[in-house]
Fold:
Amino acid sequence: MFSSDSLVLIGKVVATHGIRGQLRVAPYSGDAGSILSHHTIVLKGPNGELDGYEVAGSSIHGKKVILSLESFHNINQVEHLVGREIFVRREQLPELPDGEYYWCDLIGLKVRTIGGGYLGELSDILAAGGNDVYVVRMGEKEYLIPAVEDIVAEINLAEGTMTVDPPEGLLDL
Structure:
């Protein structure tokens, strides 16, 4: 049995690939290679049920990952898996160096300026070339904050906060 608290969302099955039972996966980390190291995954079904699968093989295909699961050998066996979200157990994720964070740990942080102003909650992260962009929302307002050291002054996961030092004009709508 799987506890949803111990699972981390890493991608979604977006299509089948070929006729040999392979799946095309869109990774949520912005890095297709991040999925390649996992030997087991958990798929969330349409009714919320969680099922574990052994990975038979995986490879990068453009910005997607092609995934083969044990016991599935043709397209008819995997068509029902399209649209399912892919999770791994948190303990399967490698330790990150200081100053790096998993996206799932950042989503939901309360974002404030160094002056104490409340901007809202980090609701999404966009992979945008050279650096990620944090999407911060408060009601109808939305701020796009570049995820760079010059702007992100502090991330405190224990307190659930992020402090930013936006340059002049960044928060103007």
